Amino acid sequence: MAAPAVTVDANPSRIPTVALLPLALTILAFIILFAKPARLLGADWWNDPEAGHGLLLAPAAVWLAWRRGLLADRRPQPALGSLLLAGAVLLRVASELAAELFTMRLSMIGALIGLVVFCFGLRQVLAWWLPVVLVILAIPLPDLITSSLALPLQFKASQLGAALLAWRDVPVRLNGNIIQLPEHRLFVTEACSGLRSLTALLSLAVLVGGLWLRHGVSRVLLVLVAIPIAVVINGVRVFLTGFLVYHVDPKLGEGFLHLTEGWLLFLVSFTLVGVVAGLLRWAEHHVPGAAHA
Q1: In angstroms, rounded to a whole number, what is the distance separating the alpha carbons of residues 92 and 174?
Q2: Sheet of 184-187: strands edge to edge?
Q3: How far apart are the first and last CA of the chain?
Q4: N or C, fewer C-beta in 10 Å, the chain?
Q5: DSSP secondary-structure letter at 4?
């Protein structure tokens, strides 16, 4: 009597096709729901100077999550993950009805967090806290918030720049965000408010703090210090522009040279943030009690 034939899988580690079906349906549903916010976000990163830091933060977040890897003791939490996914989908629908891009993009991040919790648990999200924060920071703020922040920053930059010009004996008169020089007038526009450099510097402070520093107090201090650094350096930029326009050539207040000046001063800001991070790292290792702060 012949024995029945037994089929042996040549690759026992291969995932059955039936098990891949839920994963394929999840990916398809995610693409259908969030293709629009993802496309618009990528377009803003590429075309909008105010959102260009997302081109750095998003790949950095993916790399950091990959480097951290999955926790050995991870435990899926399907109930909590399903609840987060349902909330993200409702937020996505509401934001579509209200035509509100910021909330729409947040719903996409919420859905990703829900998927991670569903598959790996909440502890995995906490282990990936830095990539999550970087992705959130990569989302451009709504126009209502940026416009309300830009005007005070314009006035502050104008005040600092005018004070430094007066300190250097340059005849100057300040009227709001207009700096009046002899035969010249400088307008501190919204683009020169420093909001762009402030957003980028805060994002880099979060990244540097997450990579270099070990304690939450040190990381918060670094982010807080980055704010006055960005404001003061932008005031110095306004001062240098006025000084060069008055003493050298009015053409130095616009065009490529003006843009180059902004990039150089941003590098100065980032260097100062790096110095502060180095001091905080030194304090974590050498100041008594700092390790338990």
Answers
A1: 46
A2: 173-175, 178-181, 184-187
A3: 78
A4: N
A5: P
Reported residue count of the chain is 293
Which candidate, 46, 147, 26, places its Cα nearest to that of 88? 26
Contact by Cβ (8 Å): 283, 290: yes
Q: Is the pLDDT of residue 196 over 60?
A: yes
Burial of 73 (0-12, 13-18, 19+ CB in 10 A): exposed
Give the residue carrying structure tokens 């965000």. Answer: 177
- How many beta carbons lie within 10 A of that of residue 75, not counting itself? 10
Whether the Cβ atoms of residue 144 and residue 66 lie closer than 8 Å to each other: no
How is residue 60 written in tokens? 């950095």
DSSP per-residue codes, 138-205: TSPPPHHHHHHHHHHHHHHHHHHHHHHHHHTT---EEETTEEEETTEEEE--GGGSSHHHHHHHHHHH
Q: Are 158 and 192 in contact (CB under 8 A)?
A: no
Within 13 Å of residue 247, how many CA atoms lie on the same side as its CB? 11
Find the Cα–Cα–Cα–Cα dihedral 195, 197, 202, 208, rounded to 10°.
Answer: 180
Query: 142 φ, ψ to 5°?
Result: -65, 155
Three-class SS state of 121: coil
Task: Read off the pLDDT of residues 28-76 as tens digits, 9 standing for 90 and up.
Answer: 888 888 899 899 999 988 988 778 888 889 999 999 999 999 998 889 9
